[in-house]
Design goal:
299 residues; alpha/beta; D-Maltodextrin-Binding Protein, domain 2; 3 domains; two-stranded antiparallel ribbon
Length: 299
């Protein structure tokens, strides 16, 4: 890698601001710099990658195909940098009164809110900084010391990470009440390949668990019409009646019990799994981690 050709953070931040805020003028106001400086930074970024990143269409700046790729990376870099600044601030102030907690998005959407409320009530002296992400990135955060504790759907496989069982869960096949499978009896396992699915994205823990289980019964591929990064959005689309999905029971149990979704039982096929508590072995005496784990055990 030629480090002299790497872009600077200010240029990446500028590209993100122009796209997110809708133009050069808006980005200039947000970054407290002049419009010429915005233009200069964008040109610097294009010179760095040696390809146009933006083009003017109908009087407005639009990302080129290359620009879309750079924008994704710019957004990720700036988010990671923001997280780094928060971590460094915690180190400066002292970390024994706060907890850097990372969880998968499904746990974050469905289980974490109630846990945070209970923790605040029981331990008002402590602070939790929670973030959501993919399991692999969370594992990296634990190993590198950027997270104190994690709640995961798949157990990390790393010698520096201690994992403990938290909850038992199951990926269940579900469909909307207007789907042809609603109110059906056991679905023969060989009919799994005949359904049309809407699933979480490939990087998600539930998708990885599903594909591993399917390969275990000799199914390497299933028809996937849509990939969605939100379990709640998948549930909304399922209610339209066209697709089926596999989702964590803890995320859809209420929808099933209240009749919004139907649990399709598959003959001879269940995907049982464990939710995990994970932390770095070098950070086992963290008082806030211990308090949070005690809450998890009591819940």
């Amino acid at each position: 890698m030629e480090y002299k050709k790497l872009p600077d953070l200010k240029s990446l931040a500028t590209l993100r601001a122009v796209v997110d805020l809708g133009g050069v003028n808006e980005a200039a106001k947000s970054l407290h710099i002049g419009q010429p400086a915005i233009t200069k930074r964008l040109r610097s970024l294009e010179n760095c990658y040696q390809i146009p990143l933006m083009q003017r269409i109908g009087g407005r700046l639009r990302l080129t195909t290359a620009g879309e790729k750079v924008y994704v990376i710019a957004s990720q870099v700036m988010e990671r940098h923001s997280g780094l600044l928060e971590d460094l601030e915690q180190l400066r102030l002292g970390s024994q009164q706060s907890l850097r907690l990372e969880v998968t998005s499904t746990i974050g959407e469905h289980l974490l809110p109630e846990l945070l409320i209970q923790f605040a009530e029981h331990y008002p002296q402590y602070k939790i900084d929670s973030r959501m992400g993919y399991s692999r990135r969370i594992q990296t955060s634990l190993v590198t010391g950027l997270a104190d504790l994690a709640l995961l759907e798949n157990a990390p496989d790393h010698p520096d990470i201690l994992v403990q069982k938290w909850l038992e869960d199951e990926l269940v096949m579900v469909c909307g009440r207007s789907h042809l499978l609603a109110n059906s009896d056991l679905l023969p396992v060989d009919e799994l390949k005949q359904q049309t699915y809407i699933l979480r994205e490939k990087q998600s823990s539930s998708r990885e668990s599903l594909m591993l289980a399917l390969r275990g019964i000799g199914i390497s591929e299933i028809p996937v019409a849509l990939e969605i990064g939100s379990t709640e959005t998948i549930v909304e689309i399922l209610n339209r009646g066209k697709y089926v999905s596999f989702l964590p029971r803890f995320a859809v149990s209420t929808d099933i019990s209240q009749g919004r979704l139907f649990h399709v039982k598959v003959q001879g096929f269940r995907i049982m799994r464990t939710l995990w508590i994970a932390r770095n072995r070098s950070n086992l005496d963290h008082p806030v981690s211990e308090a949070f784990i005690n809450l998890l055990r009591a819940s």
